[in-house]
Amino acid sequence: MCNKIDVLGVHIDYMDAESSMNRIAEMMKSDRMDMVSVVTMSTLMLARRDPVWKKYIEDMDLTVIGDDEILKAADILMGPIKEEVQNNKFIELFFDFMIQNQKQIFALGETKEEVEGLRNYLHNDYPGIQIVGEAVVQDDASPEKYMNEINSLTVDVIVSGLSGFRQDMLAFENKSQLNSKLWLCLGKQPFIQSNAGLKVSLWSTLLRKNAFKRMVAKYKEENHMIV
Question: How far apart are CA 52 and CA 152, in angstroms?
């Protein structure tokens, strides 16, 4: 199953996890680097406010829905894809694929805590995963620093995300300089953040969910959609 849905004016892919993985398997055979983003509420709210970020999301080679609130916003209240999103099925299949095919991963984050948490999460939840390098993306550092470090290693996949968007913009602006096959932007997913040992406030999660619902209701009202 493959289609597009409109959430907050942003068009994202709507497909099951197996179909997404079939796309990724094809991407791994290509001669260019493809970009995949796990779309969260935070991603869409930023895209709604920022046209540059909206273009960034819609220009992704593949988007994967990472929060069932996004499906609710699109009036999808049941079905197998909703169950897969709730169970983080895509993440499971993605990293299992990386292990089975012995792909090498480079981890990026905005803080040392985030990078260490991501590394520990992958090692603990996916034994056999190959992480060959990692880096903290800093505001004052030249993008070439990270490009050179990644290209100096045999890296198949770059994984970023969890607590911010700085490293994702790095990918957006410099993808043509990288020799890797795939860049996966994980996004702010409470499930993975928690497993990575990052502090996730239930209150901030609730506030974000309420803010997203209000933004969706406003968007639907402005566009004469049924709320």
Answer: 30
